Batch of 2 targets.
Target 1
Amino acid sequence: MAVRRALKAVLVDLNGTLHIEDAAVPGAQEALKRLRSSSVIVRFVTNTTKESKQDLLERLKKLEFDISEDEIFTSLTAARSLVEQKQVRPMLLVDDRALPDFKGIQTNDPNAVVIGLAPEHFHYQTLNQAFRLLLDGAPLIAIHKARYYKRKDGLALGPGPFVTALEYATDTSAIVVGKPEKTFFLEALRGTGCEPEEAVMIGDDCRDDVGGAQNAGMLGILVKTGKYRAADEEKISPPPYLTCESFPHAVDHILQHLL
Amino acid sequence: MAAWGDRLAGVRGVLLDISGVLYDSGEGGGVPIAGSVEAVARLKRSRLKVRFCTNESQKSRGELVALLRRLGFDISQEEVTAPAPATCQVLKERGLRPHLLVHDGVRSEFGQIDQSNPNCVVLADAGESFSYQNMNKAFQTLMELENPVLISLGKGRYYKETSGLMLDVGAYMKALEYACGIEAEVVGKPSPEFFKSALQAMGVEAHQAIMIGDDIVGDVGGAQRCGMRALQVRTGKFRPSDEYHPEVKADGYVDNLAEAVDLLLQHADK
């Protein structure tokens, strides 16, 4: 493992870590302020595919988080870049609210499939359409492959299971652009001037947040909020650098031990 | 490849897949594949034993047989090995109470099974019922169990309807496996127990039996792993790339069931 250097950047997950749907994690706003009063650069990285950047920002403002748009890096941004780079016309299986992030992209006569978290599209007929495009050779671009996420009424299926279904049926592999892909974490750091060895990621998803960041060379801190379930920290090897109660505890640890 | 005479020597029993071999399902029930009605009749008039081995899980066995009879096939319920009845037996043996994610057409097969307070999920080809809400309900049921048991009626990737290829139960099984981090138990092809029960019902040893199907992995690969021979038909879900499958090589490829039966009547049981 590379020698660790002084910490310069902190990546923070949004839903499940700073807030759970429309409620802030207790103490998270103050903790973010404490973190910002130190010298580190803060970035917010999210696999939330339901919402455009603008929607995310509005919710965070309503919850009184001090965050600006250029600090947010989402998997939708990453997906759009790939579509442009490949010059394909995607069938967009994404939530309607995410469509603003794809404004200007050609979608007629599709020859690619972009799949995000879109419960309203995850029905038999629509998935069959996507399946047939893939059999004809269209690439499958997955915004992320999260297994499930936490809603107010309990755990709910993420896009990952549906991506896996299409992969199995067509015997192909999706190109995944969101967490836990290494390129996602490196892209998120771009512009900060920091190396992965100088960064830490805080999130509630053991595999996608913590495992992904650690694979990219960062430290990973798992918080026991959001989708966390008992013994999640045992799901990855090496284990999380740290597992703690919630975002404020993670910030305290960083301020006391990593700076 | 060896001559047909060598490849088919000693065959005494024939297992027939149904969907994609006898007929293609679709609007209004479906249509028989050209020549298949006569082929089944000819096979039944021969000395060869015949049994039907299907992963059909949208319809009850009774409904399936009624549909096939309407299409002109000589077939009865007792001649069909299907996953729903086999699943009921597993549920009873193990005291499992299922949450069903199945098509309404097959629900009646589970009429005698206690479904209160579920301790497992049974997944079948639910068709239109594969909605996000229904998948989520199955997922939540599994996640609440200390020891989650997922039983899938087959694990096919896709099958052919008259309107085109459709995702099969296997895709949705993989979705739930991935979501819950578990492995499903498959009742149906290609599970060896399922093939063995069909062979037993037919009264023929594996090495004297041949499977005819349109699924290179589920039908051909599965039957061969049980010691049977297997032919793939170029109907139903067949795709040209199947003949170059990296892992499975059929004992022969034929245009349709009619050609398979021609060859069997000419060369088998000699």
Note: Chain B is about 35% helix and 20% strand.
Target 2
Amino acid sequence: MKIKLLLSASFIVCISSFISLHAKDKTFIYCSEGSPSSFNPQLATDGTTFNATIPVYDKLVDFKVGTTLVEPSLAKEKPKISVDGLTYTFYLRNDVHWHTTKYFKPTRNFNADDVLFTFDRQRKKDHPYHLVNGGTYEYFNSMGMGELIKDIIKVDDYTVKFILTKPEAPFLANLAMDFASILSKEYGDYLIKIGKKEHIDTEPIGTGPFIFKRYTKDTIIRYEVNKDYFEGRSPFDQLVFSITPDASVRYQKLKVGECHFAAYPSPTDLNAIKKDKNLRVMEQEGLNVGYLAMNVDKKPFDNRLIRQAINHALDKKSYITAIYLGNARVAKNPIPPSMWSYNDEIKDYEYNPERAKKLLKEAGYPKGFETKLWVLPVSRPYNPQGKKMGEMMQSDLAKIGIKATLVQYDWPTYLEKSKNGEHELLQMGWTGDNGDPDNFLYTNLSCDAKTGGANRARWCNTQFDEKLIAAKKTDKLDKRIVEYKEAQKIFHDEAPWVTLAHSKVSVAMSNKVVGYKIDPFGRDRFYGVDLQE
Amino acid sequence: MNDTTETSSLKEFSLQFIHHKGALLGFIIIAFFMLVALCANLLAPYASDTIFQNAFRLPPFSEYTHNYFILGTDDVGRDLLSRLIYGSRISLGIGFFTVVLSLSIGGILGLAAGYFGGSIDSLIMRINDIIMALPSVLFAIVIISVLGPSLANTIIAVSVAELPHFMRLMRAQVMAEKNKNYVIISRTMGASHLRQMFTTILPNCLAPIIVQSALGFSDAILCAAALGFLGLGAEPPIPEWGTMLSDARPFIESSPILVTLPGLCIFITVLAFNIFGDGLRDTFDPKLKR
Amino acid sequence: MFRYLSQRIVVLLIAFFGITIIAFSLIRLAPGDPITLLLGERSVSEELRKEMTANLGFDKPLITQYFLFIYQGLQGDLGTSVITKRPVVDEFFQRLPATLELGIIALLFAITVGMPFGICAAVKRNSFFDYFTSFTSLAGYSMPIFWWGLVLIIIFSVHIHILPVSGRMNLMYDIEPITGFMLIDVWLRGEGMPAFIDVLKHLILPGIVMGTLPLAVITRMTRSSMLEILKEDYIRTAHAKGLTNMRVIGIHALRNALIPVITVIGLAFGSIITGAILTETIFSWPGIGRWLVLSVTQRDYPVIQGGIVIIASMIIMINILVDTTYAIVNPKMRKQT
């Protein structure tokens, strides 16, 4: 059914008046899905906030747009890494200006002090900003950066040394993540002087391609172009985030030209958008995996045969149709296919209830058993409708005699209880942070992660662990690939998860938009984008 | 009171009730839903949680692999009609248990407050004040997040939110009755507090309580459905109407029937209970009617 | 009179402290905390988690936290949201105008439609019109408003698309709030008529949805209080004096019938908050209802306890106001309590 939602004469009138008002300015309007929680990525864990801070800030190194490759940004070149892998020396650019705004006028360029300021705030308890606005730094802490970084030394104004406690191959990729965005020390000092420390997270000063101008809660974020941006000025004079929580409304706005770009189009609208001549959809496999964790600490899931039986019992293809509406592919490994070291030789457990029954019998449960299945209470890219999927899984499991009762909790309860291992079968998933397989495998399946709680299968396999640690210690890519491929093999045979799906990330935009590259991490980055009339 | 007057008053009551067309209509609809709920397993073509593989969101009157779906299927491939039929069990059940729970607890508290007065009264009334000052749905949401969303906890949360109605009503009734002659007489004859409260006063307060119970049914069904709509209702795959409606929201444009019908069921049931309750009140209290 | 009022106030203050305890403790009984939520699928070591909790001040004994909450609350500081890092009081009053604007429109709708219908129904008792009004108001009373909202969206936005689906105004207007009431701000910002109409259009559906329950209550209330008044002696006298029907109803009856109706409107505030939670969820309205529900699912303790306390004090204040009006209007009431 084709539906038009918002069209009315008055809208057309106001659009045209708007355009005539700002005819001189080249404005890019992005229909975003929600309000950022703050304007400092160090405090956030959600993509919505990161999207709003990306135009403002830069990092030492960054991901090459559209890829997971790390390239220098505020650093002049890739850092020098010592032979033991413990010291990273960065040489900084000296031509980077801080933003000048109504609320702050910088007197100096970006330098090593800013790098120290940024990381010290997050890692040093006695830093004047450590406790400002909560001071929990979830991302920094969950990546283990506090324990990993032994010290950061300013060699001179444009040279900084990071000293680590242990060799960690993914470290450089970590520095390309949003929480490593560099903030201005001069601005921090200024705010201390005027007694408004907490403004550092709501009125941002950065070095990025756009300057923060104004934010009206739940409504709009405005940015102005940074004419002095060190990589060159963006063709836009203004960048506007129009906050529109409802996906179908975003689509309608895109259609009538109220925005040029829409975040997270609803899967139900995708076909209509694809058919529209003025619009375009870009899709890419996202860096994510949805899975069903089986708690190996609980009977009977300590038995490998049972875990394999469940792998055979679930009809993953039907979930792709019903839950992801086709915008996903069946997962056979815990890492997505676009990631290096993906082991394509592994053959997935096929949907085969008969085989599953046989395995159950072999394991000593010919009549099946009763268990509980926890359903994901929130919509995530890796699993948009956990409850629905749970209902389908329940029916699949019933076919081999496993009677699963569905359990639902709200999100904080779900996280808390599953962290403590109170569950039996649990829907979960993961979205990659830095494009490194370590970030999937070690974070979710290592013995360390079992203690921390993120290893929801509570599966600790020494052989598997050894491979991951070996891969951490070397920065030779081919060696790491070998280790990870073998690790995936062990994972497959032991089957602590049922890997369900890797969902596609899609964005919708007007045909006028050129130069946009879809980001594997799901961020929307508009530097390098232009509008073609 | 002897037997003959009781039967005749009952007879009179039924007569008046039947003459009240609205009340009768409400009663008939309720009876219908109750019948559906009781005979759900006979009426429903399929079980409420049977998933027909790949039969996602079929339109009404469709056939798929030799199965016929009168109202079509939902987004995971279950027969909508069967779910609606079994849903009546859930909603009426929620209504029933909520009323029983809040009536018994609220009623006893109200009875005690009205009968004893003094400090017991003020203590109970302060509890009442507190519950009244909290917006009921918000209060229920917080209770649910403490207890976890499930059918049983929905009933508990809604019952707590409903408590004040019964508490206040009972208290007011008891206060009106307790100084009447028959109570004073029984007191002088040495009846115990319990005996006075439950056998002397209580039966004479029943009429408004019965009315409130009918209205409480409708409030409970509505409140529980609202919780279901906010995603805090019964655990899947229980076919609770509010949850069904909420789950179908993404498909409001392509399959509006999935949203419309569960809502309609809630509406009609709640309306029936309200009409019925209104009718009961009119019959019990001819003063209001004339 | 004074004694009665001071008694009432003391009683309500006791209730108020009960509420602060419930608002503070209940949500802390729920599993999970704001840090769990912010971490999501990630995890940190137990040590780090303790440190993070300490940074937020949630490691102190509950009693200390409670008294801190009360102590700061009395000074007008209800803490800072864990999620948005902004003061709870600021966030509340930034969102309140959106809810109030919607609530006022809803009540206006309820009053302007409900009172005339109620009066006419009372005057033309037992007519078809009376039955129709009674039934409709009962239907409104029984309406699951979340469903009603969706049905209206399907009809008016999806099928005949004359009204917008959600939001407060078309975002093409870049209006920075001054009062927070968009109907006023469009004029203050010099946007003029088209913007005003746009805002009004966005208010229609949510206004109807939120106004449905008050409409039903007001209609019924007007009808029944009007019926009582029409039986009173002075109305009969007025009739006997030969005043026209219109004048009797218009001047004598209506004025007296208004009193109970106004108290109902006053008491509707609590149910407006309840209505707001559902209505704002359906229409993505940036008001306090949606904000509170979200804060429960985010375990944002300061927001939940602060929000509940502000709302409860508003309800209590309105209760005192209503009680006072009653006491003034009807001296007999003072003896009961």
Note: Residues 333-337 of chain C have pLDDT under 50 and may be disordered.
